[in-house]
From TrEMBL:
InterPro entries for this protein: PFD_beta-like, Prefoldin
Keyword Chaperone part of the UniProt annotation: yes
One GO CC term, this protein: cytoplasm
Keywords assigned by UniProt, alphabetized: Chaperone
Species the sequence originates in: Neohortaea acidophila
Pfam family, one: Prefoldin_2
Chaperone keyword on record: yes
SUPFAM superfamilies: Prefoldin
One GO MF term: protein folding chaperone
Family note: Belongs to the prefoldin subunit beta family.
Protein name: Prefoldin
Amino acid sequence: MAIPNEKLQEVLREIEAKASFSAQQLQIVRGQIASKNREKRMLQLSSSELDTVPVETPVYDGVGKMFVLTTTKEIQSRQTKESGDVDKELDNLGKKLHYLETTYNNAQQHLERIFKGSAGQS
């Protein structure tokens, strides 16, 4: 039982569109992961620098276009929270990356099966 050409072309277009969309989303997610890794590294570096500063040293935190006097403990607690948030976002992006890779690979496999099936019928 052969599939009509119109239906086959429609299925091919859908699978190609899904593969193309997944490939684009993969690039975006990989860029987001790289950005979050940079952000995490910057937090680690600033935290290690802050650890070398004596506790009684006045520290200023940037708020918009001004600086506010604060303690090192406040900055460290904020950085710890931000680091946790970045870790959660990286975990979610990793899951999204896995889903998109699976979707892309499945679309590629479906395309290969369709082309092999149509080549076998010719």
